[in-house]
Amino acid sequence: VVDNLFFCIPLAGNGEQPYIVYMGALPEGQKTLLEEHNNLLLEAIGDEKMARDHKIHSYGRSFNGFVARLFPHEATILSGKEGIVSVFPNRVNQLLTTRSWDFLGMPETSKRNHQVESNLIIGVLDTGVYPDSPSFDDKGYGPPPSKWKGKCEKGVNFTGCNNKVIGARYFNLENGPQDPTPVDQIGHGTHTSSTAVGNSVIGASLYGLAKGTARGGVPSARLAMYKVCYEMGCSDMDILAGFDNAIADGVDLISLSVGGMSRPFFEDSIAIGTFHAVKKGILTACAAGNSGPDICTVENVAPWIMTVAASSIDRQFETDVKLGNGMKTTGISINTFTPKKKMYPLTSGAQAANISDERFGSASICDIGTLSESKVNGKMVYCMGTIGRPDGQDLAVGDDGGIGAIISVEEELDTAFTFAIPATFIDAKAGKKIDQYINTTNGDGDERLVTATTTMASGGGGDGGGDADELTTVTGYTDLDKRHVKYSIESGTSMATPHAAGAAAYVKTFHPTWSPAAIKSALMTTAKPMKIKPIGAALASGSGQINPTKALHPGLIYDLDMTSYIQYLCKEGYNSTTIALLTGGKKRYNCSSFKPAQGSDGLNYPSMHIQLDSPNSDISAVFYRTVTNVGLAKSVYKVKVKTHKGLSVSVIPETLTFDRLYQKKSYKVVVKGKFIEDNSWMLSASIAWSDTKHFVKSPILVYRPL
Fold this sequence. Notes:
The protein has 706 residues and is of the alpha/beta class. Strand 19 (344-348), helix 9 (373-376) and strand 20 (380-386) form a beta-alpha-beta unit.
């Protein structure tokens, strides 16, 4: 679980560029949206033909708005017009398994509601899909559910949909149909889709690694793909077009493995799209980003989003490295290459430099363009000190004819990645020994030698295997990488997100009437706490690791409806004019129409957080919560509190007694205290309600700026 701690807002330029003009909910009984949008543009630009030429697209199936090319002063004019919620620059966002479902507690033998599952439609906004994969074979499927209102667009390498992939559309609004096909030419969307809804495919592997049954969380469900992402990223305007159509098409859940720096809710395409989705009862899972765990790195923080972080699983892809002097070490990588020779010549980036001026990059870390082809060709290259994820070292070495790369990292090794050439990450300690070996001469004139091979072990990190795209290669770098495969291994929040979406869909098949907030609550309160120790661990790990089968029986749920979200937005300072546009309908609601939100956060959320105004502030907060009984009709829940030194947590009352199902009970949590350690910036606690059968956990977090 993440909370809206900070907004890191990029500045817009001064030239003409695309702007999103967001106008809230669809109006009732008014003139056509197209005419309204054109008139607004005319008022801002002053010329009818220019206004029409500058408009790129109108939204109007699920919410109201348009996108147009504007100068900043024209955007400012529009932002002051009646009926407009926000005007903001279009931004390009970035794209952020065989064992993983078992690891999450949902083996193939898990109980399923197949008939309901087959009627479920998962919408995925991504890079497209490769429908010819076995993961999307429609053998045994009936026709699409009658609620489906979507389309299937054909294009290059995409001849049509089937009864598994029931919808496929592509949006590239600014650039036009340069890539006129829903097919996945990158592989990302095919992988995420198969992770959420892919059929069970026995014997899937990547060159024998991670061999097993590849399957989605809800393998009987249907897929609707909305291609909104391309090589350069995912444009705000295309993301909004995806949401506009997915909501109206009748999808039940949405998965979006995309993110960018946090912005105010209604200047953020993903927050806007997910808000209108939740209004229609559609839960959206979004990636939390791959930049953490650090302050101000979490993305997609709106409370109506299920924000998903990534964790490791219980297997590890190891690469054994052996030097010519007999030294052995183990690195981490997904290395499918088999050495053609027993040993290879070894050099370092520093020794193979082609420049002395490091303003253009560092040869020591093997930046692209810094190595000499004559010094690298035919050799393994040691590169030092990088960020712990591929950063182009394999390309730099491979482009100059290098055989492979050994890359040292300062941080703890956890996640395995694929490379375009044989390569592995090693820890800094082993890196220093390799560097010493390279730089030590013994007078015999022998060349330094090395070899590397990969094995798979238990007890480590990395995601499971999922569907790949045969139109691209394992890494996507087609100049160096010629490996075309059906299945691959990927890591990060992009791959974690469809796991959470699949888990949410699984819960929905047993509880089809539950709201998006109820499903999210069930997954959060039954999650397993993470065993990680660094400072900030509670913030980095959120509610913990989900367990889909436990989430079927959470005991109690924290529910939220649109009224709750509007109350929260009023408390956050959104004005009545904005609220009226967001809610839509004939009756013009404003903040005075709603009961004020209670407590420090004003939201009936499964977690609680406080952000202090200053480092020396005392801790004082009250949280009001209401739980709904979905466990045993007659039950008594008692609370258990765990807290940190310096933090006092009181729960009133300490016992909740229920007489029937769906009965609601309220309680409050009083948090007081003070930071004792000068360098501490976070305190954590938790409460858990239990009737001895169910354990309903909620984390509490206190943050202070230093």
